[in-house]
Amino acid sequence: MLNIEAISQGSKRALARAITWVENDQPEAAQLMKALHGQTGRAFSVGITGPPGAGKSSLVNWMVKLWRRQGLRVAVIAVDPTSPFTGGAILGDRIRMADLTMDDGVFIRSMGSRGRLGGIAAQTFAVGKLMDAAGYDIVVIETVGVGQSEVEIVEWADATVLVMVPGLGDDIQAIKAGILEIGDVIAVNKADRDGSDKLVAELEMMLSLAGPRDWRPPIVKTEGTTGAGVEQLVAAIADFRGYFQASRLGEERRRGRIRREIVSMVGQRIDRLLEQTVAGLSGWERLVDGCLAGTDDPLSVAERLLVEMGIGRKIRQPDTIDRP
Questions:
Q1: Taking a C-beta distance cutoff of 8 angstroms, is the pair 165, 193 a contact?
Q2: Where are the domains of the chain?
Q3: Helix-strand-coil percent breakdown of the chain, rounded to 5?
């Protein structure tokens, strides 16, 4: 049995084992997360997102080193894409940050996305909570880097850093699908390239078009190869953290995160129940045959299954929630 006290005291071995339980959805994971929930909520989570090749890992490497000089303990979740053919992941981000692994105040965990869209893995938030409970001050979540669909991080991180690079068409991509809106801080990385000043100007213009807001995302030019500008980037994140804690934004985001966590867990359990029920139906293929023949339809079949399982009634009339 895992020693919960060891996690609370910062044992890397205990934390690594706990993360494995959570990633593999082992039975012990549920009791573990329940026991540790009261010790969470102290860490500040920072999401790092942007297109592939933007230099996110290099920036994270420099940022972690700077936070460590400030005396902060830092944990990093590096999400890498999972092969749709083999199910494996290269986990290259961890290789790029190999020089941090000998620091006792740094913990790095790579996670495969396992086919999940949105840039993060299914258990990313749960793993972040474990790192929080282990006493880390900053939890960094570096996303896959999948472009326009990678916006889920903003729902789980306290602060989101959007990393953009000149010359990759990011000035156009930023207009699409709310990409620009997800950044609390914007880093224009590889700023030594031609076009960086043009990209900054275009980003400033697009932020101006968004109208006045309480927090205007600062734009910081950085160079991941040399670390130039990273000190200013970390300072900008600290400024946002001050705003986050002083305004209603902090409570609103964390409250919303708890809501999503509960809904996600309910959804996961319903999915498992549905899989078990469908797998045990002796007449499953007959239901499919009816839909193929046109004598039945998928929506009607789904509704009947939900009612038979008792879920349909509960969804319509929750018995455990007070209604006005």
A1: yes
A2: 4-247, 255-316
A3: 50, 15, 35
